[in-house]
Amino acid sequence: GGYPVRPERVRELLVGLTEVRLLEPRTADPAMHERLGVEDPSKPGSAGLLLRVQEANGTPIAELVVGRRRVRTQGNLPESAYIRRPAEAQSWLAEGRLPVDADPQLWLDRDVVNLPAARVREVVVRRANEPELVLARAGGDMAAKLALSAPPGAEATDESALDDVARGLEFVTFLDVKPADGMPGEAAGESRFALADGLAVVVATFRDGENLWLRLRAEGSGSAGEAEAARLNTRWRGWAYQVAAWKEKSLLPRLADLGGRVSASQATPPRPATGFVPFPVAAPSTASPSTAT
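Above: the chain's sequence. Below: its structure in token form.
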């Protein structure tokens, strides 16, 4: 979907490509290429990887078929690999490190967000046909644990589940990523995490069968909060992230997930079957992302 890759991986590969040196020629017989892993990469089952560096208009700058690689375990001996220019039958043993991988996941920074539980002041959860949940620290004391403060007459007894909600934005990594416009699934609900230092994060959750997808946006108040929100939105805007399905209980918990219930006399009327009420979108921050630390 055009998601940004890790620039250090690209830099490492390009530097490695400029430093690779041919050591000695190997087979020029195409029938023997498979032994070295430099056979045609488009061939089904091929072990060869085609590495192509090209200009913005698609003109190739450099092309190599990279075959089997050897990592030396003794001393500081350099790595080596079998390579071949695509238009030539001659293969070579080359010295140097070529960190090329065909798995897209290895090129991406899969971290979505990592905000510590100690910063979370309040969490508001909205689902269709269910009462709104509010979890907050008693008296605004950041040393206190999150506790259920709404709906009226409800209580949550599972302290570990409450702690998991506080940690909902810690170490969130994605399994897959897509442009937000092409995200699959149906809306399940939204949660708003209010944090210290003027930051709030709204997590919109979508279900696609057994898969869980998220869209995130940040809101900020005050100079520090606005700067942090601008930095996070620059990263999140326009993207949808698939995360592990078990994260739903910490990002969009139901009352039952917290070991709680609401008495019949105190229950809040269910929301309309047409869906939940989403959190309003705050006015865009005027803070520049470059001011964030």
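The helical segments are 7-19, 33-36, 159-166, 222-236, 248-251.
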